[in-house]
User: Which sequence fits this backbone?
């Protein structure tokens, strides 16, 4: 698995956790990644431009994984930074609800 894939899955997992904390389950079927990522607006208050970035990242990951297109190092670094930022935001939300691990 590449760093880009790992970063993308970290973002998707954070979105899924945020949904579960709010009492919802990520949807299944067509577009389930898109819907899960879009839910970040409601679950963690993520801005629309940042959600658009996550959706663009999903396309970039798809192209790299299934179409064997190369990925620029700057794109990988941006994806890792976005994953870390979202992880911090999720951790803050969990801590605020008394759910963060000790």
Assistant:
């Amino acid at each position: 698995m590449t760093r880009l894939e790992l970063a993308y899955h970290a973002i998707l997992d954070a979105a899924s956790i945020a949904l579960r904390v709010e009492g919802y389950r990520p949807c299944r079927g067509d577009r389930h990644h898109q819907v899960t990522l879009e839910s970040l607006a409601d679950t963690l208050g993520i801005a629309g431009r940042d959600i658009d970035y996550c959706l663009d990242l999903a396309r970039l990951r798809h192209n790299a994984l299934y179409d064997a297109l190369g990925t620029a190092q700057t794109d990988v670094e941006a994806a890792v930074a976005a994953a870390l930022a979202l992880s911090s935001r999720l951790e803050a939300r969990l801590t605020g609800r008394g759910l963060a691990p000790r």
Notes: The chain has one domain: 3-96.
